[in-house]
Amino acid sequence: MGYVFGPVNSRRFGLSLGIDLSPKEKSCNFDCVYCELKGAKPVKSIPNPPKAQDVIDEVKTALKKFPNIKVITITSNGEPTLYSELDELVDGLNKIKGDKKLLILSNSSTICDKSIQDTLSKMDIVKLSLDCATKRCFKRIDRPLKEIDLDNIIECLMEFGKVFKNTLVVEVLLVKGINDNIEEMQKIADILQRLKPDRVDLGTIDRPPAYDVKPVKEENLEELAKLFKGLNISLIRKNTPLKKVDFTKDELVELISHRPQSGFDIEHFFSAKSKKVLEDLLKEEKVQKRDIGGTVFYTIPR
Ligand code: SF4
Q: Is 20 in the pocket of ligand 1 (CB under 6 A)?
């Protein structure tokens, strides 16, 4: 037992109950430089996997104890899609989850497997990682098993994006000196503009990494985020600027049409006057409020 943890307050998904399918050891087919777990040789499967029914029973008990959680997150000390009974687990959780959302955090490595795509299609929210668009970068940051091919992953992401009906989130994690350059990010932005995920979570290292790598400065993240035109970008910023910004109606419409603003943006960067302008735009239906995978965004109605 001990497969369920939390609840944890996830900044991007809300109050979440976590499921760790490999609580005793790291089981991943990547060995990312930024991993918050200790570096380990990549593996193909989760050794000693739990029985799906045991995990489901544990979640059932936890749901009674924490009725207010918003999401049930399938994760692992590694890559959850390597779990042999994932499909059975997802079916069982869908039966007991009630109004909670079912979320999985995957590194995208198994997305070419049709049976994995079928299982992921039963989730409310699928969050997939894409840190690199070029093989060299992929090898340096994600350090995958030899047989994992980035071009295949990108092709299969496109296929999955076409069939997946629920909320698709893509996470891009930036590492200083490796993928934080305009060329790499432009290529990722091009891929994501074709994929059109519901949300893109752009972030950097915020916990001690497995290897000696450094996070990217917030101002650089902000700059690189501008490449992802037309996508709902979620940026987590730690250092809130002191000055909040005043926007006129026109400026705000312009800003939101280029880059949808998250609830976090509004809270931390908008002055009281700008918040009032936003309220007016909402009333006039020139801006709409949407919940995308647990994060509020303000967008222009299409
Ligand atoms: S995919 Fe996740 S668990 Fe696996 S090595 Fe990378 S960060 Fe760690």
A: no
